[in-house]
Amino acid sequence: MPPVRTQGGKKKPPPEGFEDIEDTLLEFQTRMRDAEKAPHEGKKKYETTWPIFQIVHQRSRYIYDLYYTKEAISKPLYDYLLKNKYADAMLIAKWKKTGYEKLCCVRCIQTQETNFRSTCICRVPKKQLKESEEIECVNCGCRGCSSGD
Question: Which family is this protein grouped under (predicted)?
């Protein structure tokens, strides 16, 4: 869980309703700590960060669903969670746009980091791929996050 920033030594309490989701956020924090400490022997260099990306995605999706789908948390609590980096605000902003509802991570749509200035292979709809072709994103380990699937 990200540290809570304080101003002038005074600790500002979280908004009302934080206690209801605190246990789930602590569980995500524990899973993140375990993923960071997991052994990396036998894995490729880029595979070591996949569990971290997946946990960040799950935590962000949990907060997104609470606010937008279930409407279970208030706007001040949602803003508090984004401000204190409990969720990836950039990823949630993309989820709200058409065509990005199932996006796995923001790195998969950044064209600057690829060789041919295109998006990641996981963004290609599965019906456009050959049947025998098994895709796996190098950035986060996603097996397909195109909204057209």
Answer: Belongs to the BUD31 (G10) family.
With beta carbons less than 8 A apart as the criterion, state whether 138 and 107 touch: no
Q: Residue 106 is which amino acid?
A: V
Contact 25, 1 (CB under 8 A): yes
The average pLDDT across 75-99 equals 95
Tokens of 79: 């803003």
CA–CA separation, 137 and 121 (whole Å): 6
Q: Which of 93, 139, 91 is nearest to 114 (CA)?
A: 139
Position 148 pLDDT exceeds 80: no
- Residue 136 has a pLDDT of 87
Among candidate residues 106, 110, 102, 115, the one with its CA nearest the CA of residue 144: 102
